Amino acid sequence: MKSKYFQSYLGFDDLTNEDYNLYFFDIKKGKALQQLLLETGQTLQDDQQLFKFWAKELLYAFKDITYRSTYTIKGDITLRNMYISDLGIKVYLKKIKFGELRDENLEFHLAFEAKILNNYAKILIEMLSGETEDRITSIDDLLQQLQVDPELKAILYECLHA
C-alpha cells in the first residue's frame, strides 16, 4: 500500500541467500503517541490545534487502510500504533498486524469500515482522556464524562457504534 502513513516497501533480494529472502522497507523514526502522553502526564484538549491536526492525519491514515489495503487487520489499531516524528508534524502507523486478503463483498467492507471507525474513536478518546485502553472499563461512560465539544462527542459516539 502506497501511503505516507505507513512504511514503504522498497524491494527484496532472493538471490543473495538461497535459504532466505530479504525484504527492504524505509525506516520511519518516531515515538509512539501513547508513550509520549504517558511520559508527559498530559492529555490533549479538543480545541488544541495539535489535537485537531493529529486527529485529521489519523483519519487520513485510516482512509488509506480502508481503501488502499487489500488485507484485513488482526486485532485493533490503538494509540500504541500511532507514531509521531519531526516535532509532531509527521504521523504514521506502525506495528500493525495484517491478516488474510479481504473479501470483496459489501457486507465485509462495511464491517471493516465499522471496525476502523471504532478504533478511530477509541484513539481520540484516549488522547483526550489520558486513560489507556487497558484501564478503560466502559468506553461509553468515559465518553459521557469527557468535557469536549458536543459535536465532537456526537461524532465519537457514532464512530464507536458504527
Structure, explained:
The chain has 162 residues and is an alpha+beta fold. It has a single domain, classed as Orthogonal Bundle (Transferase(Phosphotransferase), domain 1), CATH 1.10.510. It is 43% helix and 16% strand. It has helices at 33-40, 49-68, 106-129, 139-145, 150-160, and strands spanning 9-13, 22-25, 31-32, 71-73, 82-85, 90-93, 98-101. The model has no long low-confidence stretch (mean pLDDT 84).
Set out the fold topology:
Elements: E1 9-13, E2 22-25, E3 31-32, H1 33-40, H2 49-68, E4 71-73, E5 82-85, E6 90-93, E7 98-101, H3 106-129, H4 139-145, H5 150-160
Antiparallel strand pairs: 1-2, 3-5, 4-7, 5-6
Tell me the overall shape: globular
This entry's quaternary arrangement is: single chain
Tell me, rounded to a whole number, the average pLDDT. 84
**Biggest β-sheet description:** 3 strands, antiparallel
Rg, Cα atoms, Å: 17 Å
How far is the first residue's CA from the last residue's CA?
25 Å
Strand segment tally? 7
Number of domains: 1
CATH architecture: Orthogonal Bundle
Provide the succession of SSEs.
EEEHHEEEEHHH
